[in-house]
Design a protein that fits this description.
CATH architecture of the largest domain: Sandwich
Largest sheet: 8 strands, antiparallel
Strand content: 15-25%
Shape: globular
Oligomer: single chain
Order of helices and strands: HHEEEEEEEHEHHHHHHHHH
Number of domains: 2
Structural class: alpha+beta
Number of helices: 12
CATH class of the largest domain: Mainly Beta
Amino acid sequence: MREREVSAVPSNENIITRTLGRAPDRSVNIGAWQFARWRQFIGSYELPALVDPVFVVHVGGKPDTRLWEADHWSQSRSIPGCATIVPAGVSTGWRIDGELDVVTVSVPVAELTQQSAVDQFRAMRFAFADPLGIALTRQILGELYAAPTQERVSYIGTLLDALKAHTLRGTTPSGDHAFPSADFSAYRMHQIMNEILARPEEPHTLEALAARAGLTSSHFCRVFKKATGITPHQYVMKARLERAQDLLGASDLSIAAIADQLGFTSQSHFTRAFRQYAGQTPSGWRQTIQ
């Protein structure tokens, strides 16, 4: 009886549940809005078209989620702390290769009455920064796992209303002038991290990265390590080695060509770094994969 009712009333939550093979870890409704956390170990999967657009927050799990773009996986990657907008009526492909841990906020089409809200949910937007939306989402999650009290119920309702208002207001990031260049911001950090992931072969010197963040080199290094757990240099190296794994598995480029393409000083430097990262040489890893 319950299954018939679910089938008769399609919703984003029902569609995602059927796709992942399990119900959300936690969920709560704000009227017709649905707030749900999904946790599942999964490789790659195709999500059917949703009935309502959805605001997605990457809260944990694998720090390397990719989107299928026409005929290849995206170069950009979603990491914990990124947001994504998936429009209604569009099927999407995802690669996790590990633990999926996201929150979805389903936005009823009927409530998109303002043109600005219609515009922001009309197209796919993958792995962008929205510090306020992400902070509200994390706060709501924390309360959903807390002991139930009347005050907690009221507080969750207030947070959900705030997230709803923020989502309808619009999440399109402003230009750099809207963010003080003298201070650190989550927006700038995510922007820098995504730039490294998109173009790991570039030099990405500490001085250049710090300048983009509007910080001194020493301050930027401290802030970056606090946010990611590793230094900027280690993050750049990790991005290069991950790209090297992609190239070794999906191309016929020689080891020397890959080393040169990704900005390593020599093939031997690349081989040492790759062995330390992957536990085997580039040629050995290529043979294993192929």
